[in-house]
Amino acid sequence: MTMSNTGGRRKPPTIHDVAREAGVSRGTVSRVLNGGHYVSPTAAEAVNAAIRRTGYVVNRHARSLITGRSDSIGFLLTEPQEKLFEDPNFNVLLRGCTQALAAHDIPLLLMVAGTEDERRRITRYITAGHVDGVLLVSSHSGNPVAQELREAGIPLVQCGKPMAPGSKVSYVAADDRDGARDMVRHLLSLGRRRIGVVTGPLDTPGGVDRLAGYKEVLGEAGVEIEERLIVSGDYSRAGGEAGTERLLAQAPDMDAVFVASDLMAQGALAALRRAGRRVPEDVSVGGFDDSAAATEAVPALTTIRQPYDRISNEMVRVLLAQIGGEDPAAVILPTELVRREST
User: Fold this and answer.
1) What is the side-by-side strand order in the sheet with 284-286?
2) Deepest of 19, 61, 150, 196, by most Cβ within 10 A of its Cβ?
3) How far is the C-alpha of 290 from the C-alpha of 265, rounded, in Å?
């Protein structure tokens, strides 16, 4: 490590120091730092060992001028800011994506676009080249951000299936429909027959698929699908509470309710308690996600587990592959029924 001429302070090591330590040219070090193309395994090992010994840290700004890349990824949440703090699923995804990118020494930038003005501003920022790709979370139908970014040539991976038919956007999703089917089968196995549902937003793929799974299983079991037992929700606790109140008014004989998120299911439990209904004796309650809201609920929620760690890792893997030149890809991951005290 070199010394300055004033005060004996140490200067940060440079690429020249790494080259000298490794016994290779500066060009070889540069090629290793930019992907290792046309570098022998022996030379690459020597350079990486020299980087560790010298403590060299890549100057990302300088490298971006050469490569045309920002060396950062955007995590774009197209929801109001308060949803980031209210819904535990967003924080789990954010943490998982941050950790997956840290393994590649790539920082993650959080961006929230809950309004039309925010969406336009953030889209301009992204298309100006400030990030190399985007992990898009919670895109409702009618929200043009995915298509705008794709048309601008921005590598993009969406969490959840795209709503637009024939979309070429990469995505990673849990199998929402199959998860809902498992939950409704479980409720039927308990002898419940008047099963209500508080859906997710029906302009999101999860909302549509979870409702479809509910209807499919009831149809297969020969149980009449009654519109009075179906109300819409918005994935919030208040939405689950209000939806359950509507169900109780429309279908007082309801003996089970499938709530399309754990946070909404917490609201459902509050509404049932207020109405004097015991859970699970009078009404069984099933959620979806297996988030912290499920274990914090009283009673603890039977729910459908989404594999958030795998979803995060796959989103990062697919996006980095796309940045590297691979074609868009789709990944659907299985869910799992988790039984607890609410059923």
Assistant:
1) 230-232, 195-199, 256-259, 284-286
2) 196
3) 11
